Structure formats: structure tokens, C-alpha cells
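Running low. Got one?
___
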Amino acid sequence: MSERDNLEISRRRLLGTVGAAGAAGLVVGAVGGAGVSAAVSGDGTASANGAGGPAALTTVGSTEVMFHGKHQAGITTPLQSRGHLVAFDLAPRAGRKEAVALMRRWSATAKTLMAGKAPARDTGVALDAGPSSLTVTFGFGRTFFDRTGLASRRPAGLDPLPAFSSDALDPRRSEGDLWVQIGADDALVAFHALRAVQKDAGDAARVRWQMNGFNRSAGATARPMTARNLMGQVDGTRNPKPADPDFDRRIFVPAGTTGAEAWMAGGSYAVVRRIRMLLDDWEKLSLDRQEKVIGRRKSDGSPLTGGTETTELDLDKRGPDGGTVIPDNAHARISAPEQNGGAAMLRRPFSFHDGIGPDGTPDAGLLFICWQADPLRGFVPVQRKLDRGDALSPFIRHEASGLFAVPGGPAEGEYVGQRLLEA
């Protein structure tokens, strides 16, 4: 048996027996082509959460997300506990030929890693870990099309985002020719994939910027719950759900798209924003004031107008003083789809903490990632509305931004972006 075969076996070996804990919600069925499956234990039974009660912690390592499918993985995949975002610029002399070779390498590496295997010349960082819900998602920035001679096939959805008054953007940490999103439920597995992607870039592309994020670990709560951000708020309550009848229409480019943008069929657009949270200022507010800024209870995410987290906002309800219970400038009110002509996007963020700044405040916040079929109908109208009077604005700062066209998932035998690069 070769050394590479040994590495592949070791990489797929599940974590040792470490006890049991609640991990419900880790294993889900195929959603939009990004299927998730559980590894099988030695006796031939699924090692995922079953009818017998809470799943073992080894389930975290055993969950695998499929590389091939209608859509790329990492869009409808459940939130992972670790994430890396990295943008690349093509090297000065690199063009379409080099981009084709790079996307072939990246796709092959992503497929191998997502299956829980080790690529050739592996670093050994993630030996003994299972797939851990690893996803690697690829996108193209506006400038990529000029660099590769494909400007005529650049989609209108990549038109530059408008400037917003709350922006304090650092161009060195914004945009890029190529974008890669990596997510996993194990920190070493996520880093392993990041390192492999960086090495595969070789002389074809150079890192423009890179950011690291995290979410709550799977199984850390007694039951599956909507994630909280670093302000302690439940974040993501009104996200569109794959079961919604209009989900695909809002989030993915239609399968029947023709012409110069046909290569985007089944794809989506990712808006990426590094949003600094001014936590010291936020934490000075009373609980009552924080809840009025957001428009929801901090304890469980329910609207100030009552009910549970999933109860619809009663935007017309008034209190004893005659004012609206959910303030007119509350974040939940301003961002509600019904306040924005039905505009909706799938938010799938990571939190970040990059240490303490020179002024003694935490450099922390949200790596905001949202997905939509058309940014001009998803992100832009909502952000414009927030920009004009969101009560949360004094406590956040948009420091970096990017917009990327993320093509549909590759079919068997294809690499990501092949329908664009080889048309």
C-alpha cells in the first residue's frame, strides 16, 4: 500500500470515542444538490443521529457534504463552526489558460478534501479527522473577466455595489479576481483546506486578503438553535428556507438562463462584508435599549410584539404611549422583507475576532455573507434602507466589501467554472 493510500485511510478515520452529546440537526438530506450524508460505522449502521437518541460527538467528524450537484456546497449547507474566506488576484502574466488550470486543481482538491481524503503531498494537518462537513465554494469577481478576456460574459449581477454612507471600506481587504469560502465543523479540517487551496494557487494567483471566522460548535446546545452573533443577538431568524416555494427564485439564478450568462444557471451571487461591531459601546446599553435597537428580545429572538422567535413582526402594534412597540428605526423593522418590496437574501455569516486594537477595543464582528439571485434585488435595497436610519448603525462599521459570481455546482467530470472558461 502506498504512502498516499495510507494518508487517505488516516484522513477518513473518524474521531475516537469521546462520549455522547446532543448533535441533532447535523445530518440533513440533499438540499438543492448539496447533499449531506453520514459515514457508516463498522457494523453497517449509520453513525449519524438516529432514532435511538442523541448522537455521539463523532458525528461531527463523519458528516460529508457532496462536491458535485446542482448548486455549489456551502450555500444551503447548515452553518459550520469554522470558516475561512480568501480572495486571490491572478498573477500579472496569468490569463484564461492559467485560470482554467487553477480551477481544475482547486476543484480536484476540494472534491478530495470534502470526501475526507488527503490530497497528494499532504501536510498531515487533518489526519485522523473525518470530513467534518467541509465545504469549499468558489466565485469570480468583476475583475476576473477582464483578466481572462471574458468581459463579454461578465454578468450584470456583478455591476459594482453602490456606495453607502456607513462604509469605511479598506480596498486592500475588498473585492478580488477569485474568491474561496471554506467551512467545516473542525478547525484543523478547515485550516487544512485553506492551506491546500493556497498551495494549489502556485504561480497563477496571489492572496489578496484572507479572513477567519467561527460559529457555535455543533452539539453545544441542548437542541438546534438559530445562531447568535457577538452582540449576543439571535441572528438569522427570518432567513429564507429551502422549503419556501420561492426559495430558488430568490437565491439561485434560474436554470433556464440563456445567452452570455447561461454559465451562471444554478449559481448565486455572494455579497461579502466585514462588519466591525463596536462592542464596548453596545455593551454599555441597557438590555431594554439593546432590544429596542434590534426590535427583538435578546433572550429568545422573539419580536417585541410577542410570540416566539418565528412569530411574524406586528409592525403596526402600538404601546400605551401611542408609539409603535417595535421602534420605527429598529433593525428588524427596517430589514424586514415587507418593508423592502419583498427583497430577501440568504444570510450565512461567520463571526470574527482578530485581537485587540491599539485603542484597546476588540477587533471583532461579523463576516457577513449573503446569497441571492440578483444583488440589485436582494442586498442593495435592504442595505440602502438600513443606511438611511437603522438604529444599529452607530454600533457597527462596514470595513471591507466584495461581490462575487458563484457558478452552479459542477456535474460529475466537471470542474467549477468550466461552463464559463471553456465555452
Observations:
- The first strand starts at residue 36 and ends at 38.
